[in-house]
Prior knowledge:
By secondary structure, the chain is an alpha+beta fold.
Amino acid sequence: MCGISGFIIQKPTSIFNLNSLKKMVSTLSHRGPNNKGYWNNLNETQFIGHTRLSIMDLSDKGSQPMISSSGRYVISYNGEIYNHWDIRKQINRLKKTTWNSTSDTETILEAIETFGLIETAQKIHGMFSICIIDKKKNLLHLIRDKFGEKPLYYGFSNNNFLFASELKGIVSFPNFKKDIDKKSLNYFFNFSYIPEPYSIYKNISKLLPGTVLTFNLNTHKITNNEKFNTFCEDDNIQITEKNAVEKFDSILNLAVKDSMISDVEVGSFLSGGIDSSLITSVMQSQSSKKIKTFSIVFEDLKYDEKYYSRNISKYLGTDHNEVLINSKDMIDISKKIPEIYDEPFADSSQIPSVLISQFASTKVKVILSGDGADEFYGGYNRYIAFSKMNNFLKYCPYNLRYIFGKIISLIPLSLLTCMEVILGKLFLQNRSVTQLDDKIKKLGFIFMNSKTIVDMYFSIISLSENTPNLLNHKSALSEIDEIKEKISTYFNKNKNLVENVMLADQNMYLTGDILHKVDRASMHYSLETRIPFLNPNIVNFSNKLTMDMKIRGNTGKFLLREVLKKYIPEKYINRPKMGFSIPLNEWLKGPLKEWSMNKLNLNNIKQEGYLNDKQVKYYLENHFSGKKDFSRELWNIIVFQSWLSKYN
């Protein structure tokens, strides 16, 4: 895994030069501590940099930027191509090729020489962000993988074209103007992240997943932004109730095998949930030695999964490693969040994600994760609840729903736990619920604000109905309609309600939140995280399944559970979904209080002008008096204020 960066200028200058590139690359050293490389053209107008984490071909032959055998292409690439040996075989059948390394970087270059740019992007299976300069056509291409596992920012600064794996690289460019995009602020304070293609800065965008962007080096303009599809080996697969388990098990084994290709040791995150347990089970079944597994231990038993992960590790025979989250760790990591996530990002599960990545990086350089299964196999509780709520919304007039929602919103925090049984029976079949107060608050918000399906989805994924009141810019309220319009583009009229919710999650939440969180948390500690559930053949298989094979009754990930029964006893499988949540409310009132109150200085907030200090004061007074739980709203503000003090 690596970091890439570079810039294109129109005329050579003393300001923008190789030293500028070296500064950009140095900000990404955590993504690749093993080596740094630089390339520029003779005119000194084109600059490409690379910082390398050596995973495949540990020799210098895999160093970048790399030039193709013909001399036509120059590449700087971040990622792993799991099927690159298969692609080499395809190339060797078509022409005689002398390979200089075992690096997948060289494979990409020769594939482009052989098949062309778009077909190569379609053929390669893996995670990647790529910069390619075509010296013959005088074009620069930026390419990002199908789901955006690897980040890539691009844009303009004073007519200079910039790109980098992280915003750190772009911000370090000389004279970069740090103008905050207020629409992106609206996204952030609604969702706790900024979705593609937006970034926190004006004139800087995230490249959309599955896209090839073309920049003309003569005209200095973006000339094309083209989506590509991924080739799948199993497009003709026929799935039935009888063969689904065996076929999925077979495809998953191949995906895990591909993901384990490495010249260094590969471990696995193991929470004890369905997803990580299945990946770990398949890994251990393919390994002749004990694989290293890693999990988080919480002092609060509501959030702790150590008994599940320990039992599964013991049964499978893995080399299990645990890290305990204590108060000091929480404070230290919270202070580092702006350094790790260099644009505002406030999914609070970032804290355990960072801590487990830090811990795992001391023992392995590559880790496999169970992320991606929820969005494709019906794993979130909201998929079950959404269908039930939709029926309620259909037959209950909006005025009556609004009253129900208003009543719920007025319930004191101290009484919310009394509704646990009601919520469990109504939506979750008596399963236990973590962060119950937040879920009930959300239920009231949905009832009050959902006139359409898009309204309902927005209400579920957005943080608070108070966001327009929190933001100081006048267009904040009207921007909500634009956000909903963007969400509606992910819905397909030929799909049912739950399928559309899953599609929206796959296209926005998975990339903008989950994969962003995983990449930054792991790469800050030079740890490469691989996600087998996003293998194109796994995704292709999921798209061919009926909804009944994903969600059956009140149980999500039905097929994954059936496959997991082949590896571990059923008693370890039938357990409630917990997610990677943390006791944020208690932490803000306890070990994080002093630090967080310093970040929530109302005078500073008023002077900066981005947020309404009166709304922040309302959150603070109600939260710390125990009337309402505004921990998530306050965490967003804390994260933003921390980011603002570091970067602006």
